[in-house]
Design brief:
This protein is α+β, with helices and mostly antiparallel strands and 638 residues long. The protein folds into 4 domains: 32 residues; 168 residues, Penicillin-binding protein 2a (Domain 2) (Alpha-Beta Complex); 339 residues, Beta-lactamase; 55 residues, Trypsin Inhibitor V, Chain A (2-Layer Sandwich). A hairpin with a 5-residue loop joins strand 8 and strand 9. The longest helix is centred in the N-terminal third of the chain and has 32 residues.
Length: 638
């Protein structure tokens, strides 16, 4: 059958159109692959050929409030291998093992492992630069040195529980290192080379380099100068009393910033593997809970004053040595009692029956409401792990005896950081602040602040007028009462002692106490609150006024000038014992002639600077109280 020319022509046109269509589809697809997917496919191909030698980022430093480095990094290279590139595994293992000082068999397992990349760990992690140089000099194929670092704590045991530590991979494991691990870590970099399916390097493709991105630096509220003073005094106390443990906290009462924090036993963060976990796992200032003893009386005092239930100077109380409450006898620490006294003297003498009376005036609902408002029975929210909540009586089960013992700090369990935050609120005008220790994150390159934490005021607990009365009462404790060991010439210091019997298996232990003191200064404008607790001091009378108060006094004697707090005029004179040196007020010497000085300085020593006939300046200034026999420097001029 003969096909017509028209049919042939139609078929040819159809084939042509189909061919053009197929060609167009193929051409568009090729163009799409070439131009749209070209880079993606090339990257995928490179990825299949590539091997990355990682460069660890520099972990962010931890700095004190003045920029002093508390945790930083030291370069420590690491060894890795590409097993497929190793031509003679046995020889390579032998040479590597000789440099690293480990058995050849251990290295042989790494170099023969079926993996694209293999870290030689732990044998080749964080090695010295000298060893890294030796390995490079061997020229072993398939063996590489990767840039790495190790965490370094330049001050050793200093601030150890707060800083915590980082592991071998620079991951935060404890303390601030763990709390802010994400911000401190940074992003890894690498050197990328290309290899064929057999793992051999491809000679015609250059290596790629991606620089690591360092983590953010963390700035703290800690003042290393204050921390150094605290650590020094705890070391002295450790040597003097050989206690079972010690706790110390210094805080700015006006914003909740922690200026220093320490405890004993402590540890070296660089050597944490050789320390018992119960030592580094327990940051005692925020973790431990115990009966506070008489330091808790500050809360009862503040509550009674705020409710206008007591006039410290006019109201009186007779202490015969014990208070009878619901058939229970609650004794004063002083056998026979303090006799007839004002309530200001009740505070000075830390009289238990007097505080039982204040607790009864408040009633259990009011008393426990203030205890809650001051932050007890709940976490303060400080940015450290392991914070405890303490233990309070269930209000439904509080009877007259529980109410009475709570009023003087027995039968309740609190944490040190709760006490510091609460007393800060009692003396700062009445505002309870959330304590915090991480202040800001800083870009390590630009040194610009990326983010900053601001103080958090939780609530107002008492009035400014009540806070002023609390401060006055606590100044009397230091000048005339049980806290004389914390008295500092020239400064107005307030505070309260505490002596709490320890509990074991539900019973009070004999002769085993936690003695404490919490102090603040200056009384008229508090700038620092310092708390110290000493667990079972040996070879001494276990009283807070005997052991803990002098420790706080020694700390604040150096801390206050360091903070720029000048000596203040006024304040209460210390009630002297036969062991004390009397204090005298420095006279005004400015303008006097040299011939007139001697009769003004009968009880003081004179140091002279400059030349001339008249005094043009003096230190300390007039009105400051100093110990008899202290030095006064004068500056002479014309």
């Amino acid at each position: 059958m003969r096909v017509s020319n028209v049919t042939v022509r139609k078929r040819l046109i159809f084939v042509l159109v189909c061919g053009l269509l197929i060609f167009t589809i193929i051409d568009v697809r090729l163009g799409y692959v070439q131009f749209a997917l070209g880079n993606l496919l090339t990257d995928r191909a490179k990825d299949s050929w590539s091997r990355n030698i990682p460069f660890q980022p520099e972990r962010g430093k931890i700095l004190d409030r003045n920029g002093v480095e508390l945790a930083t990094n030291k370069s420590a290279p690491s060894v890795l291998v590409v097993p497929r590139q190793i031509e003679n595994p046995a020889e390579t293992a032998k040479k590597l093992a000789a440099v690293l000082g480990v058995p050849q068999e251990a290295i042989y397992k790494h170099v023969t492992k079926k993996a694209n990349l293999e870290w030689v760990k732990p044998e080749g992690r964080k090695i010295s630069h000298d060893k890294a140089k030796e390995i490079r000099a061997l020229g072993l194929k398939g063996v590489y040195i990767a840039e790495d670092s190790i965490r370094y704590y330049p001050f050793g045991n200093y601030l150890s529980h707060v800083l915590g530590f980082a592991g071998i991979d620079n991951q935060g494991l404890m303390g601030l290192e763990l709390s802010y691990d994400k911000e401190l870590t940074g992003d890894k970099g690498y050197v990328r080379f290309y290899a064929d399916a057999k793992g051999k390097r491809m000679p015609n493709i250059g290596d790629d380099y991606q620089a690591p991105q360092s983590g953010l630096d963390l700035g703290l509220t800690i003042d290393s100068r204050i921390q150094t003073i605290m650590e020094r005094e705890l070391d002295v106390a450790q040597a003097t009393y050989n206690p079972d443990g010690m706790i110390a906290i210094a805080m700015n009462p006006n914003n909740g910033e922690i200026l220093a924090m320490s405890s004993r036993p402590n540890f070296d963060p660089s050597n944490y593997k050789n320390v018992a976990p119960e030592v580094y796992n327990r940051n005692l200032p925020v973790w431990s809970t115990y009966e506070p003893g008489s330091t808790f009386k500050i809360i009862t005092l503040a509550a009674a004053l705020n409710e206008n239930l007591v006039d410290l100077n006019k109201d009186t109380f007779n202490d015969d040595g014990a208070a009878e409450v619901a058939g229970a006898t609650l004794r004063c620490w002083k056998r026979g009692g303090h006799g007839h006294q004002t309530f200001l003297e009740v505070v000075q003498n830390s009289c238990n029956p007097g505080f039982v009376e204040l607790g009864e005036r408040l009633g259990k609902e009011k008393l426990f409401q203030y205890i809650h408002d001051f932050g007890f029975g709940q976490k303060t929210g400080i940015d450290l792990q392991g914070e405890g909540k303490g233990i309070l009586f269930d209000l439904k089960r509080v009877g007259p005896v529980e109410q009475a013992t709570t009023a003087f700090g027995q039968g309740v369990s609190v944490t040190p950081i709760q006490q510091v935050a609460a007393v800060a609120a009692a003396v700062n005008g009445g505002t309870l602040y959330q304590p915090y220790i991480a202040k800001e994150f800083i870009d390590p390159k630009t040194k610009q602040v990326v983010s900053r934490k601001t103080p958090v005021a939780k609530r107002t607990v008492i009035s400014e007028e009540t806070s002023k009365q609390v401060r006055t009462a606590l100044e009397n404790v230091v000048a005339k009462g049980s806290g004389k060991g914390a008295y500092i010439d020239g400064y107005r210091v307030g505070g309260k002692t505490g002596t709490a019997q320890k509990v074991k298996d539900g019973r009070y232990m004999e002769g085993n106490y936690i003695v404490s003191f919490i102090g603040f200064a200056p009384v008229d404008d508090p700038q620092i609150v310092v708390y110290v607790a000493v667990d079972n001091p040996k070879g001494t009378v276990q009283f807070g006024g005997v052991v803990a108060a002098p420790i706080v006094g020694n700390m604040m004697r150096d801390m206050l000038p360091t903070l720029g707090v000048e000596p203040r005029k006024g304040g209460l004179d210390k009630e002297l014992t036969w062991l004390d040196t009397p204090t005298i007020e420095v006279p005004n010497l400015i303008g006097m002639k040299k011939s007139e000085l001697q009769e003004q300085l009968i009880d003081l020593k004179l140091e002279v600077s400059g030349s001339g006939d008249k005094v043009i300046d003096q230190s300390p200034e007039s009105g400051v109280k100093v110990k008899q026999g202290s030095k006064v420097r004068i500056y002479l001029g014309n």
